[in-house]
Amino acid sequence: MQSSQEKDNQPINSTVNKQQSSIRNAMYKSIYNNDIEQIKRITRLFDFDPHEEISSPGNKWCPIHYSCYLNKPQSLEYFIALSYRKYKNNFQDIINIQTKDGYTPVMIVALSNSIQSLQILFKYGGIDFSQKFDKNKTIFELIQKYSNDQFKEQFNILYAKNNCVEILPINSLDLEKFPALETLMDQENMQKELNISQKKQLKELLLNGQRNPCCICLSELGYIKYTICCGQPMHESCKPTEKQKCPLCSRQAFQLISEILYPERALIL
Question: Which structural domain, as residue segments, surrounds residue 108?
Answer without folding.
Answer: 4-187
